[in-house]
């Protein structure tokens, strides 16, 4: 037992030395990280312009800050204390994180952090209740925090040129004021059904993704004017029938997909002025119609839709007539059965029931 205790003490002592050595190495690593970026270029610890902005903010209220293209690698937490800030442009830098303290910018309406090195957004971004324009394009985002749905004042959202595989499920349920949504150049395979509840949406760009289709209720976006789903390549093969309900749609780009037929309701897009159907194996409408332009396509599809409705009406009339005839036959058969039943009962009454006997007739002669 004593031997085991001594061995345990020795192990603790050895472990303590290892921990101390590891701490010393870690300190050296941090020191080197603060001195050298890539063996040659010194890291700028504090940007003089950033310091100047923070000092100025203490003296008077700042509404706009533009630090675009300053090669910033981090943003001081103190930025979250510029309470009167309305617009913050941090695009074209080398930021890897956004400090949680930015949630303190309660009046912020515009935030641009495009073209940085961001791999995630802080959950605290949902506290920016007055944010109207958010641009996080050109980063390394794999997902958006669900809290972004709480930015209910958003009018424009640009998350393009990232690595997004999906969008928050409730995005459309909460962002009812959104008018422009840019989600192109990502890895999206589908759009959440809730996106169809964005009744204010006018612009939707989802090109260059991996979309397998559009939500079935896409037609509820009655204010949509521009829709771009080009270059989803082999993944996008068909479109929902409700596409024809986008009555305010003016521009539609479906190029570079595998669509073989436009939905029969396509001819109802009365306001459509620009249409791109290139690089699709289209059968309906045929290529010669597509080459004549958007009006020819709409006319062809409108006629096809009218013919389809006429055929359905014809089939419906046939069914109605058949039901009527079957109904007459059924009524006639029922009447005949009733008549036969009545006659049968009458005859049975005469023949089958014996009345009282006459004793004179029964008397033997």
Can you walk me through this structure?
It contains 6 helices and 10 strands. It is α/β, with parallel strands linked by helices and 365 residues long. The chain has a domain at 62-302: Ribonuclease Inhibitor (Leucine-rich repeat, LRR (right-handed beta-alpha superhelix)), CATH 3.80.10. The protein has a 10-stranded parallel sheet, with no helix packed on it. α3 (171-174) links the parallel β5 and β6. The longest helix is centred in the C-terminal third of the chain and has 58 residues, at 294-351. It is elongated. Residues 32-44 and 350-365 have low confidence and may be disordered.
Indicate the structural class: alpha/beta
Head-to-tail CA distance between termini = 140 Å
Strand proportion, as a percent range, falls in 5-15%
Shape: elongated
How many helices? The count is 6
Order of helices and strands: HHEEEEEHEEEEEHHH
User: What radius of gyration results from the CA coordinates?
Assistant: 38 Å
CATH topology of the domain at 62-302: Leucine-rich repeat, LRR (right-handed beta-alpha superhelix)
| Strand numbers in spatial order across the main sheet | 1-2-3-4-5-6-7-8-9-10
Query: Major sheet, described briefly?
Result: 10 strands, parallel
Which architecture of the domain at 62-302 does the CATH hierarchy give at level 2?
Answer: Alpha-Beta Horseshoe
Average the pLDDT over all residues and give the rounded result. 84
**What is the fourth-level CATH superfamily of the domain at 62-302?**
Ribonuclease Inhibitor
Question: How much helical structure, as a percent, in the residues?
Answer: 25-40%
Protein name: PARP alpha-helical domain-containing protein
Keywords: Coiled coil, Leucine-rich repeat, Repeat
GO biological process, one term: microgametogenesis
Family: Belongs to the SHOC2 family.
């Amino acid at each position: 037992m004593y031997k085991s205790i001594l061995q345990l003490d020795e192990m603790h002592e050895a472990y303590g030395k290892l921990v101390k050595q590891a701490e010393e190495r870690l300190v050296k690593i941090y020191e080197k990280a603060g001195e050298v970026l890539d063996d040659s270029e010194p890291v700028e610890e504090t940007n003089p312009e950033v310091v100047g902005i923070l000092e100025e903010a203490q003296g008077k209220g700042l509404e706009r800050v533009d630090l675009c293209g300053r090669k910033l690698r981090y943003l001081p937490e103190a930025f979250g204390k510029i309470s009167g800030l309305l617009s913050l442009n941090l695009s074209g830098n080398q930021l890897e994180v956004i400090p949680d303290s930015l949630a303190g910018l309660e009046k912020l309406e515009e935030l641009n952090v495009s073209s940085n090195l961001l791999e995630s957004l802080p959950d605290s971004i949902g506290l920016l209740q007055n944010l109207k324009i958010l641009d996080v394009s050109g980063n390394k985002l794999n997902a958006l925090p669900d809290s972004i749905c709480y930015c209910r004042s958003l009018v424009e959202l640009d998350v393009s040129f990232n690595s997004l595989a999906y969008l928050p499920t409730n995005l459309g349920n909460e962002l009812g004021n959104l008018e422009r949504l840019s989600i192109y150049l990502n890895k999206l395979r589908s759009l959440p059904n809730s996106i169809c509840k964005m009744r204010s949406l006018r612009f939707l760009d989802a090109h260059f993704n991996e979309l397998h289709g559009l939500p079935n209720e896409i037609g509820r976006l009655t204010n949509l004017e521009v829709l771009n789903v080009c270059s989803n390549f082999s993944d996008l093969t068909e479109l929902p029938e409700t596409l024809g309900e986008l009555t305010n749609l003016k521009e539609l780009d479906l190029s570079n997909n595998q669509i073989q037929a436009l939905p029969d309701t396509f001819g109802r897009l009365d306001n459509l002025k620009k249409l791109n159907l290139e690089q699709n194996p289209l059968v309906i409408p045929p290529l010669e119609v597509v080459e004549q332009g958007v009006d020819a396509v709409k006319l062809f599809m409108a006629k096809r839709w009218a013919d389809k409705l006429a055929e359905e009406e014809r089939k419906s009339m046939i069914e109605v007539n058949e039901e009527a005839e079957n109904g007459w036959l059924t009524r006639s058969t029922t009447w005949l059965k009733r008549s036969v039943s009545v006659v049968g009962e009458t005859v049975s009454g005469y023949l089958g029931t014996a009345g009282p006997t006459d004793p004179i007739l029964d008397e033997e002669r």
